[in-house]
Every structure is written in C-alpha cells, then in structure tokens.
Amino acid sequence: MIWLALPLTIVLYLATRALYRRLPWPIINPVLVPTLVLVGVLLWLDLPLDQYETGTAPIKALLEPAVVALALPLYQQARQIKAKLKPILVCCLVAVVISVSTTLVIGRVMGADAAMLASVATKSITTPLAMSVSQSLGGIPAIAAAIVVVVGVLGALIGFPLLKLFGVTDPEAQGIAMGSAAHAVGTAAAAEQGITQGAFSSLAMVVCGILTALIAPLLFALYGLLN
User: Which helix or strand (DSSP H or E) is residue 78 part of?
Assistant: First the structure.
C-alpha cells in the first residue's frame, strides 16, 4: 500500500498548500482538505484503512521529531515568554477551566452521560493526552481522539478570523488563544502566521495539556457531587 498511500498523502498536502498560497481562504486547510479527499478515495476504492495507515508509516515516523521541533520557536522567544510567564499561566488556567466547565454544563443540558462527557471534556488538548485523560475519567479514548481532531481543524479554520473579528491583533495573545483552544493543529496554523504566534501557541498547548490532566479530574469530581 505504500506505493499509493505515501505519494497520495504527500501530493494532496503539497497541492493544498500551493492552492492556499494562491487563494488564502481558511477553508483551504492542509489537514481538512486532504482528509476529506482521502476519505473519498478510500470509500471509492474500498481500501482498508489499516493498510493505508501502514503505507504512511514513514510520515508517521516524522511526527515525533516534528513535535520536538515546536521547541525551536519557544527557544527563539524565550526572553519574551519568561517576562510574561505569569499572565500566560493565568490565561491557560482560565482557558482550561472554561473548556472543561462548558463541556460539563452543555453536556448536562443535552442529557449526555458521564462517559460521553469525559470523552468530550479533553477536546482542546493534544490527542495522546486527551485519550489518556479521558480514559482515566471513564471516557472513550476513540471518541476523545475524534473530537480532538475536529476541534483542531475547526480552530485552524476559524481561529484567526474570529480573533481578528473581536479585535485580538497582538501576536502573543493570538498564539496563546490558538494553542489553548486548538492544540497541535492550531499551533501549526499559528506558526504559519509568525514566529511569535507559533512560540506562544506551542507553550499554551503544553501548559494547557498539563493543567487539563490536573484540573479535569477535580472538576469532574465536583460535577459528580453537585449531581
């Protein structure tokens, strides 16, 4: 399958990036568009997903060094980050509390059960952490992973247009917002906007992941007591 999966995935990604440079519309996202096309191809040709995934093994092997590479913009902006570390931590803490709390409130109103709430509550942190934290809360890791992908792509699509709509033009604030709400996919979109956005988004993504792992169980315990 590698003869099809690998070149097709790379070509779709590069084609989407090239199209975005010509037509910089948020909907032309290098994650969303290739994903939709690949889903269509797999269904049309009736190809097994696990075999296609195996065929993209070389790309998957690059994911870990790609994540580590996110530390570069952090290093480049280390002085600015150190000077504003306290407000950054406060912003990330507020973001995590709002994210988990709104999930519990909306889920309660819609009649979602505890397993579904636990699966959705980790929607704004990166996939491995979301699956682990969700499972520890009694959620379903597969659903948590799917929700994380949807939230990340949605954040990359509408994040910066929304920030501009509400007058948030500071690069540091934009980066923190994207990293805390749309994790790795949002951070990739932030990095395309500038080094500062990418650095602060990377930091927010890491901090929010840690804070969610610490705070989500406490909020779930409080939710259980109140209900």
Answer: helix 78-83
